[in-house]
Automatic annotation (TrEMBL):
Molecular function GO labels: L-amino-acid oxidase activity
InterPro entries for this protein: Amino_oxidase (IPR002937), FAD/NAD-bd_sf (IPR036188), Flavin_amine_oxidase (IPR001613), Flavin_monoamine_oxidase (IPR050281)
A Pfam family this chain is assigned to: Amino_oxidase
Species in which this protein is naturally found: Streptomyces corynorhini
Keyword Oxidoreductase annotated: yes
UniProt feature coiled coil, ranges: none
Protein name, entry field: FAD-dependent oxidoreductase
Length: 506
């Protein structure tokens, strides 16, 4: 349950393996909620401190008004779950949310959606010839089979749609001849998809041919994972709002979830962790036996941190987050259906980048939601430097080239957005380790997750699946495991020396 804003008072007592421990969890996002939930299942006593007045962290469902009732919803944070993310799907089932699981339609999944070309916007169903021509024009020779060129063209288009423009500029040449030479010897006919069979199911292809991955540059491995996840046909959402997941988790936690308390400093000692906590104009110190910190490192590095070793301080300050900006329009009607678009997303380009057409779960009389702009990284930073009115005007100007219906009087009833890069509680949307090889990514993950005596860490930045709910859950399970096995005065046995819970259940 969410506790009222009252003073926090945990008695300071020594915990030990085999007996209940008192644990303070910092942050009521998915990582903090899962850590608390699992610690309570292990028999420990937990209290959550959240700096903002919201729970859910970077899951944020906005509900537009509808004549005094809740109108259509917009996901301004996490909005999708790859069906292969087994931990996330496990919690959805355990929390009784299976009946809310619904298909999430993504980029290029609707043949009537748009993407840009050198000659203007074109429909997905008509894009193959233009994409192949433009892609093949950049190759040293064009002796490849038609299916191979179609594969390369759609892989290039997918990378262009997902990567920020500056990042894509450095990737374009990485779809090289070595990869195409290998693919040219594989029958791609089973992977042609779309109504006219003019696209390639990249996710299915790479799943069936993992050896092809070795011909992609090692530094692109993580990025390719995200490209395949985002363009997969097996992605789901929670009908009625993704915030059902954190809300249901919070309802299962017995301990208090205290909001409006901002941690502004941490001091790790041999036998305790001292937290400096701000509540309004007052700041006080709380001494804790055990702490799980899910605060993003972008926020943590702004605080005084004492008792941390130098390697830990280095990773806190060096971990990079990318911004993300989402802008949703509450529209009078789903005008895109007049263009034959029934869902999915267009790659818009420009500042807007991606535009999604969410399904209407509620009463159509209350209008529809258009996720007008979803941008990440430097593209999001550019939008964040604009004022709200100017930002909305830029989005409408760019998007109305593709969707002129936006300029009809009374079409846009309201606008809501979230800029995760400048939000005080996150200072970024997610950790992105796209440009790193696997060994370096794993070394940074381990260092990010490594405890400091009684202080453990969780969050997508501590996981092997950064930027996904799956990563937050994975790290929370491991942090709960660490607390379970930690002995403050004995040998200091950490779960890092044992298989993690997430690894044991793999």
């Amino acid at each position: 349950m969410t506790a009222p804003l009252q003073e926090i008072d945990f008695d300071h007592t020594d915990g030990a393996i085999g007996g209940p421990k008192k644990v303070t969890v910092l942050g009521a996002g998915i990582a903090g909620l899962v850590a608390a939930y699992e610690l309570e299942r292990l028999g420990h006593h937990v209290q959550i401190i959240e700096g903002s007045h919201e729970i859910g962290g970077r899951i944020h469902t906005h509900r537009f008004p509808g004549n005094g009732r809740s109108g259509p919803t917009a996901e301004l944070g996490a909005m999708r779950i790859p069906a292969g993310h087994r931990l996330t799907m496990h919690y959805i089932a355990e929390l009784g949310l299976q009946n809310q699981v619904s298909e999430f339609r993504t980029l290029f999944s609707d043949d009537a959606a748009y993407l840009p070309s050198s000659s203007g916007y074109i429909r997905v169903r008509d894009a193959h010839e233009t994409l192949v021509e433009e892609f093949a024009g950049g190759l040293p020779d064009r002796h490849y089979q038609d299916n191979t060129l179609l594969f390369g063209a759609w892989l290039d288009a997918s990378i262009r749609a997902i990567a920020p423009r500056q990042f894509y500029d450095g990737l374009h040449d990485d779809i090289g001849v070595e990869l195409l030479n290998l693919v040219d010897h594989i029958d791609l006919t089973p992977y042609r998809c779309g109504r006219a069979g003019n696209r390639i199911d990249l996710h299915a292809f790479f799943s069936d041919h993992p050896q092809v991955r070795s011909f992609c540059p090692p530094r692109l491995e993580r990025f390719l994972d995200d490209v395949l996840d985002e363009t997969s046909s097996t992605i789901v959402r929670l009908r009625g709002g993704m915030d059902a997941l954190p809300r249901r988790l919070a309802s299962r936690i017995r301990g208090e979830i205290v909001t409006g308390r901002e941690v502004v400093g941490i001091d790790v000692r041999d036998d305790a962790v001292d937290l400096r906590i701000r509540h309004g104009v007052r700041t006080f110190t709380r001494t804790c036996d055990y702490v799980v910190c899910t605060i993003p490192f972008t926020v943590l590095k702004k605080m005084p941190l004492t008792g941390f070793d130098q390697e830990k301080l280095d990773i806190v300050h060096q971990t990079k987050y990318w911004a993300a900006t989402k802008i949703a329009f509450h529209c009078r009607e789903p005008f895109w259906e007049q263009d034959g678009i029934s869902g999915g997303a267009s790659f818009t380009g420009g500042h807007v980048r991606q535009t999604y057409y969410p399904p209407a779960d509620g009463d159509p009389a209350y209008g529809a939601v258009l996720l007008a702009s979803y941008s990440i990284g430097p593209d999001a930073d550019t939008l964040s430097r604009l004022g709200e009115a100017e930002r909305n005007a830029v989005v409408i100007k760019e998007l109305s080239v593709m969707h002129p219906q936006l300029r009809r009087p009374g079409m846009v009833l309201g606008v809501s957005g979230r800029d995760w890069g400048t939000r005080h509680w996150s200072r970024g949307a997610a950790t992105v380790r796209w440009n790193q090889e696997a060994a370096l990514r794993e070394a940074e993950r381990r260092e990010a997750a490594r405890p400091q005596r009684g202080l453990s860490f969780a969050g997508e930045h501590c996981s092997s699946k950064p930027a996904w709910i799956e990563g937050a859950i994975e790290s929370a399970i491991d942090a709960a495991h660490e607390i379970e096995w930690y002995e403050p005065r004995a040998n200091r046995v950490f779960a890092a020396t044992r298989p993690s819970r997430s690894e044991e259940s793999a």
